[in-house]
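Let's practice the habit of predicting before peeking. Look at the sequence and jot down your guess about where helices and strands might fall. Then scroll down.
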Amino acid sequence: MSATNLPVGSFVRIAKPELQTLIDQLRAMGYRTIGPRLSQGAVIYDDVDSVEQLPRGWVDQQDGGFYRLQPQEDGAYFDYVVGPHSLKNFLFPPRETLLQLSREQDQWRLHAPAPPDPPLAVLGARACDLRALWVQDLVFVEVEFVDPAYQARRSNLFVAAVNCRRAAATCFCHSMKTGPAVVSGFDLALTEQDDHFVIETGSERGGEAVAACPWTPCTISEIEAARRAPRELERAMHQRAPRERQDLHKGPPLRSLDVTDLRELLLNNLEHPRWESVAQRCLACANCTMVCPTCFCSTVDEVTDLTGDQVRRERSWASCFTAEHSYMNSGTVRKSVRSRYRQWLTHKLATWIDQFGVSGCVGCGRCITWCPVGIDLTEEIAALRGTMP
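Done guessing? Here is the structure:
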């Protein structure tokens, strides 16, 4: 069946090969299509124009300081969980030009920065990343001083999200109530089944995109089966047990985080000896802030060419783990790794709430996986509570 547009809230079924049709339609609508790809032993987001480029048949095994890909036989497209990239990489890029100046006949002329890239359509975003996108909106758009570059990219963003069917050992979205089910903030939400996708339309643009595919209406049982997959995964995550029957998770028990009075716990324990203990292991490498989908610290540099006639003002990602982050006229305020780690964790889980009304953590577990020494924030909170096993 086909239609000019499918209504918001529709559930339709497409055969797996028709995923290519969806990608083609998004490109025809003027989007630069971004999706999961294999690169240097990880699943990252990059340009995608063919389903052959997707990491079909690969899953990720993750733990503290550990990430490995391995093949599986069922050939699923989206049974990996999350890699080091998130939507932040594209909406708030690691480096961007804010303005440009050129000297022409002894006069300085100001040039507007290049317009934003073509509108993006991202395939494969997970529930935790949609929550992170909402949190970043609070930082860059839902404030008095709006970031125009972020706003331009965000307003044109198309999200084809995916419901998770498995969890890595580092996932704790169930504790943060941010997943694994996709519930809002999407144009399309895909649930992968053995030989087809169940697709829910979340916007008019989503309805237009999927209407170009050969689709059939979903039956009630198909809709319920699609909804059941992330619900069963969430139940298993709360039980901290692998779902052996469907082989959705192998390895250590899943993480969880007790968020009860978490803000007060952190702010009332600023001199706890655990901060020194974690500082002995922390390398202050800033990996956790680089992979975090909500961290937004940045710095601004003036960059000139060799002649001095061309000047760019560039914004790039920064981190509270560096000495420069807390530099003031009297010097660096946070001189120790202890104070820097404490700043990061208390901001992420406590004072972020004071700033924006929500936690800065979405439970994606990236900071645990990509920490070279495997520091685990769920373990640190348990230690502060005195509930370490």
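How did you do? The chain has two domains: 11-246, 262-385.
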